[in-house]
Amino acid sequence: MFIQERQFMVNIFIHYNKESKKDTEFFEEIEKRIKILCHKQIINSYWHTGEILAGDDIDVVVRQQIGIAQIALLLISSDYFSDEYCQEIHALIVRQKTQHNLVVVPVLLRLCDLAGTDIEKYKALPEENSGNQFLNQWSDKDEAYTNIEISIRKLAEKIQTNPGDNSRKQQLQELLLGFNFKNEVPLYSKYIRTNRTVHAVLMQGTSKCSHGLLLHRIVGKSKKEIWVNLGSNVHAVSTENIWKIIGEALDVRIPLPASVCSQLGEVMAGDTELVIRFDPIERYHLDQLREFWKSLLNGLAPFKAYLNKPLYFYLVDRNGIGEVNIDLLCCDNLLTKDDVLYLQIQKLSRDDFENWLYEKLNDIPGSEVLEKIEAHRHEIMSGQEAFVGEVIEKICEVCGVVPDVVLH
Q1: 104 or 178: which carries more pLDDT confidence?
Q2: What SS3 class is residue 53?
Q3: What does the alpha-carbon distance between residue 97 and residue 67 come to, in Å, rounded to a whole number?
Q4: pLDDT per residue as tens digits for the range 190-202
Q5: Which pLDDT does position 90 carry in this prediction?
Q6: pLDDT grade, residue 232 (50/70/90)?
Q7: Phi then psi dihedrals of residue 276, to 5 deg
Q8: DSSP letters along 101-169, please?
Q9: Cα–Cα distance measured from residue 72 to residue 401, given in angstroms and rounded to the nearest whole number
């Protein structure tokens, strides 16, 4: 049987000032060109910093997206340089550049002084035409955007012919997304097939359990996720803060409970599956969570007959010592013990690890990444069982990939 080798596909990371109306207009035009390259299967996917939600851990989200990208487009203007939040992310991108072998490409949107900035050292787009360096200087904007599209295509094709470390990262990312959670995934699959308006999942395990990988498996890309980071400070969370985070994620101008519930009802009346992820949670968060849930579920009651999709709650307890229990999460008859799925993340056995490895070797013969893992399998899995996170760290070390690419 002839098996065609999978072509290495390029992912793009885009950073711009989403608060700038002018820059957002330029971004939307550039995004159209990126979508064309995706349709041509030159680009695999793209992500932009406008997708960062209120409550997200910016450092974690940005590093995760950089970890799977090969090209970073920086959309440059005076608004880009003047915004402190924008510059914080810029600094993070630059720090990660060498570590992830990232190709940084500034796209010059609007006239501004580049002297004294690190942008000077990168080759920028659009390519200069008759002295017109910035996109807004071009009289024919379609020509300028086509110039950018062609340049990105050529760069992507160059990376595809010599993928290097980025190829290993992408291959490893895809392989690990099929990693064994033989107890947890079937339990979850059975649970979500039940007819419920609300699904609530309590995920528990130590910091070495790789909650992020399991979440990626069960949440997938089809659901809209709102991440509520409750932090580790007992005074840092309140029901008012929770409403504010969720309201901002839904673009509710005044995030009062009634307004947020109304917007949630509209979203769920469509075809969107919505996930509200509380991560991490501690025992002292439970009173506020119960109060929030009670208010939310009562607020959604008027929309119940119109909801096409269920609402998902994911709660991530990273302590692994059983302090957060299901009984403490329930509130009257709105959310009972039977409504909550408890997922205690189990250790990975040697047999499960080797079954995963040889299944993948059979599916993808000749994979350099899998051959490295096989050669070091006894080193990776030295005992009869281990935490998933520990196994992944050793796999990443063997493959020469930074662990946070796949662990968060």
Answers
A1: 104
A2: coil
A3: 10
A4: 888 888 778 888 8
A5: 92
A6: low
A7: -110, 115
A8: T-EEEEEE-S----TTSGGGGS--BSPPBTTB-SGGG-S-HHHHHHHHHHHHHHHHHHHHHS-THHHHH
A9: 19
Query: CB of 73 within 8 A of CB of 15?
Result: yes
CA geometry: angle 141, 146, 148, nearest 5 deg: 100
Q: Within a 13 Å sphere around the CA of 235, how many CA atoms are in the beta-carbon half?
A: 0
3-state helix, strand, coil in the chain (%, to 5): 50, 15, 35
Among 331, 262, 339, 271, smallest CA distance to 303 is for 262
Pairing between β-strand 103-108 and β-strand 340-344 as defined by DSSP bridges: unpaired
- The pTM score is 0.60
Q: Spell out the residues 6+ positions from residue 387 whose beta carbon is closer than 8 angstroms to its own.
A: 205, 206, 208, 209, 210, 347, 348
Domains defined for the chain, CATH in brackets: 10-163 (3.40.50.10140), 173-178+348-407 (no CATH), 184-344 (3.40.50.300)
Task: Compute and round to an integer the Cα radius of gyration of the chain.
Answer: 23
Using the structure block, give the residue that is written with the tokens 């609530």.
Answer: 200
pLDDT tens figures, 275-288:
888 888 887 788 88
* Burial of residue 221, with CB atoms counted within 10 A of its CB: 0-12 exposed, 13-18 middle, 19 or more buried: exposed
What is the helix (H) or strand (E) element at residue 249, kind and residue range? helix 239-249
